[in-house]
Amino acid sequence: MKNDNALGIVILLSLIAIAVFGGSKGTSNGGFFKITPQNQTPEQKQVDIQYQITQAQYKADELKKQIQAEEDKKTQSVYKDIIDLSYVTRSEDPKQEYLTIRVNTTKAPINITGWIIKSLASGVSVSIPKGTPLFFTGTVNSEEDIYLDSGDTMYLITGISPNGSSFKLNKCSGYLAQFQTFTPYLYTSCPQPKNENLSSIPRTVNNDACFDYIDYFPTCRIQTESLPANWSYECVNFIYSKINYPSCVNTHKNDKDFYLKEWRVYLKRSEKLWKSSREEIVLYDDVGKIVDTLKY
User: Which residues pair with 85 in a beta bridge?
Assistant: First the structure.
């Protein structure tokens, strides 16, 4: 880069020298500059020299831009314009501070585990961790590299996960938000209980009230209150055992639309990472090249 800059400066000085001291006689415009005739007045010569200096400076600036563009190509990632570091939500609370990373269009899923995000202002850097594609409650979830596909969004939260894991959202994830607070708020449009398989409940007069209850049962919520004693065992058992996250996952995990295009990834930090102003955050790929930069 230093040699390229030196070359640019030499060219600039040479062009200015030509402009000031002149070249061959004549009025031809076919060369690099307009050559002034010998009979110009001093004022005309001064104007013409100034014009040629300006042109020389313009050409030198264009050359510098070309050199810089070539240098940028050496540091830019192949994922530039494919993955965007699009937004930072600032907060003093690490559980509410997060970066938003989006994928535009890609021919194949991209493994971003191990990519580095760094603040050029503070020098703080973090590595994108692994996550759990399918989160299960009541167990230790194994972690895998995180792959993002076209249209995916990843929220990289500074703090600790409410459920202890970094995970991909699915159509049942809304159940997790009933007793835990997530930032951003979790998608809460789970499959409706009334549309599940109700064949285990006898269709008797005594169960009419139970069926009505299921018809209006809210999505992404489990039953927390006691049910009427005169409802059948089958009906009560369905409400308690089938309307919840584990059952929803078991029923729908093979649906084509089961997985949502969103990840929640946690850095498990106890303090915020990003400055509230005058910040520059850079996303680097697995070979250390720049994917995107976010300034504010």
Answer: 101
Do the Cβ atoms of 267 and 273 come closer than 8 Å? yes
Last residue of a domain, one of 24, 59, 75: 75
pLDDT tens digits, 235-277: 999 999 999 999 999 999 999 999 999 999 999 999 999 999 9
Asked, for residue 31, whether it belongs to a domain, the answer is: yes
Tokens matching residue 218 = 């809210």
Residue 17 one-letter amino acid:
A
Contacts for 108-112: CB closer than 8 Å, 24+ residues apart: 109/147, 109/148, 109/149, 110/79, 110/82, 110/83, 110/147, 110/148, 110/149, 111/145, 111/146, 111/147, 111/286, 112/83, 112/146, 112/147, 112/148, 112/154
Per-residue pLDDT tens digits for 11-20: 555 555 554 4
pTM of this prediction? 0.76
Cβ neighbours for 173, distance < 8 A, ≥ 6 positions apart = 135, 167, 186, 187, 190, 245, 260
DSSP 263: E
Q: How far apart are CA 253 and CA 137, in angstroms?
A: 14
Mean pLDDT for the chain overall: 89
Q: Between 30 and 174, whose confidence is greater? A: 174
Is 82 in the same domain as 71? no
Domain that holds residue 7: 2-75
Pairing of strands 167-170, 259-266: antiparallel
Q: Are residues 167 and 90 in the same domain?
A: yes
Going by C-alpha positions, the residue among 76, 77, 102, 105 that lies closest to residue 87 is: 102
